[in-house]
Design brief:
This protein folds into two domains: 140 residues, 2-Layer Sandwich (Alpha-D-Glucose-1,6-Bisphosphate, Chain A, domain 4); 308 residues, NAD(P)-binding Rossmann-like Domain (Rossmann fold), CATH 3.40.50.720. Helices cover 38% and strands 22% of the residues. Bound molecules: NADP nicotinamide-adenine-dinucleotide phosphate. The site of NADP nicotinamide-adenine-dinucleotide phosphate (NAP) has 30 residues, from helix 7 and helix 12. NADP nicotinamide-adenine-dinucleotide phosphate binds next to helix 7 and helix 12.
Length: 461
């Protein structure tokens, strides 16, 4: 048997530390030895809840299942884990050190079966090192970040290499982030998120709900909405009144106006708006209002919904997160052909241009409404139903490198919850860092183009 024991101090109240650790699937955020973790028992964590882990073990992916044995709030958590040929018994003791400091004493006993048992002496130092890394990751994940490191010149230059830079859009970029913790709780905050019936939006809604936010999911189909609400509740353990649904077909401006009115009537305060719904289409088609449909869902909807919800967002000194795409790096704004009529339709270009315009709009709104924090972001390349449908060849070729939806949603959730980005309104973000909006010559949106874009939007809306 190998026994690991590490003690750390965390500058957070004991209740926060206990809450974060009780859902043991958060270990994927702080333990570099864990590639992925998922709570398989629906609802709030309780004795008997189970978690599936995939470990990184010398380049191999090794499955393991943990079971919560005891939860003694807020002082003690006990778990047992089983893998093929090994098991673990973890005891986490928490002790308050005054009002907002906590000591975490993490003890893990590891047992190996068969031949590996004889290698315990050799494995011991390696396990101790891994244990230390995990516990210092936990300390980082639970420490409130207050600022963001700006991009260094070399990092800025690296964006210009396009293909190597794009490799960071895969899960490698996410896994290389120095801190993947999401522990800034959102109790009492209300989030409106569009397109959360699948993919990144659903993953973000789950995580925001686990952080304690009331989540309002806007989607276009009632059965998918109901299923998404149940998935969010199963993930977070939230009660039904903390996960609400609103039905709307967001490519129709009339529907966006209606949904804005419904939300304004029901909720005088909205703390966070995430304009996540988006799509890429193979063919040109127009919406009921006569707009090219990629333009409608990726630009007109987020612009109009945000404008409608400004009073509710202003009252809360809220946050707006617009989900753009790294695809915009390849396109400039086409103000003379916003509806994509004067050349043969290319869905990827239409999508990228709309996302570029959305990023420019974000900068404009940030300047107009300093009381609200505005951001746009790109999620990297994540395996979602949307990517499988709209880019099947890319999806197939890139399958083993793509992020999962939770990795793709990470920066969205971080922008919604962390204090760190608040001093940098209007920026474009990738993996929790501000990113350049343009890397190719001629793709940067000038202030005149931005002004013309806003005039165009105001005219058509
Ligand atoms: N995944 C990536 O690698 C990636 C990369 C860059 C940017 N993005 C952006 O990230 C966001 C989420 O993408 P995803 O990959 O998660 O896509 P997804 O799997 O297709 O999910 C998109 C969500 O938006 C909803 N939606 C689409 N059109 C809608 C409409 N007209 N009205 C109402 N809801 C609508 C979908 O609803 P249904 O369930 O009803 O279809 C779904 O909930 C998008 O803005 C996308 O452009 C994704």
């Amino acid at each position: 048997m190998i026994t690991l024991q590490e003690k750390i101090q965390i500058a957070r109240p004991i209740a926060d530390c206990f809450r974060y650790l009780a859902d043991f699937s958060t270990c994927e955020q702080w333990d570099p030895g864990v590639y992925r973790a998922e709570k398989v028992t629906p609802g709030a964590p309780a004795a008997g809840s189970e978690f599936d882990l995939i470990l990184n073990s010398a380049g191999r992916r090794v499955p393991m299942r943990y079971r919560l044995l005891k939860l003694e709030s807020p002082y003690r958590i006990e778990l047992r884990g089983e893998g093929e040929g090994f098991s673990a018994h973890d005891i986490i003791r928490l002790r308050p050190l005054g009002h907002d400091r906590t000591e975490v004493d993490y003890q893990a006993e590891l047992r190996f079966d068969g031949a590996i048992r004889h290698l315990e002496a050799v494995l011991n130092p390696l396990m101790v090192r891994m244990g230390r890394k995990a516990v210092s990751g936990l300390q980082r994940a639970l420490t409130h970040e207050t600022e963001v490191a700006p991009l260094r010149a070399a990092e800025r230059l690296a964006y210009r290499t396009l293909l190597p830079a794009a490799m960071r859009f895969t899960e490698r970029g996410y896994l290389a982030m120095p801190n993947r913790g999401l522990s800034d709780y959102l109790d009492g905050k209300r989030v409106v998120i569009t397109g959360a019936t699948a993919g990144l939006g659903l993953a973000a809604a789950c995580e925001l709900s686990r952080l304690g936010a009331e989540v309002i999911v806007v989607g276009r189909e009632s059965l998918r909405l109901a299923r998404a609400a149940r998935q969010v509740r199963d993930f977070s353990g939230a009660t039904a009144d903390k996960v609400r649904i609103v039905e709307a077909e967001l490519s129709s401006l009339e529907e966006v106006r209606r949904v804005g009115e419904v939300l304004n009537r029901s909720y005088p305060h909205i703390d966070i708006l995430i304009n996540n719904a988006g799509a890429l289409f193979a063919e040109h088609a127009t919406t009921v209002d006569g707009h090219e449909r990629a333009l409608a869902i990726n630009l007109l909807c987020p612009w109009l919904l945000t404008e409608q919800l400004l009073p509710a967002l202003s009252r809360s000194r809220g946050r707006v997160i617009n989900v753009a795409s790294g695809g915009m790096y390849l396109q400039s704004l086409k103000l003379d052909d916003m509806q994509y009529l004067s050349e043969a339709y290319d869905g990827s270009k239409a999508y990228a241009r709309a996302k570029r315009a959305l990023t420019a709009v974000t900068e404009h709104q940030a300047a107009q409404h300093p009381e609200i924090f505005f951001s746009s972001m790109h999620p990297g390349w994540a395996a979602t139903p949307g990517v499988a449908k709209s880019l099947p060849a890319f999806n197939q070729r890139m399958q083993r490198w793509l992020r999962d939806a939770r990795m793709g949603a990470d920066t969205m959730v971080w922008l919604a919850s962390s204090r760190a980005p608040l001093s940098a309104t209007g920026k474009f973000w990738f993996d929790r860092r501000p990113a350049p909006t343009a890397v190719l010559p001629g793709t940067e949106v000038s202030s005149q183009q931005r002004a013309d874009l806003i005039t165009w939007l105001e005219t058509i809306l």
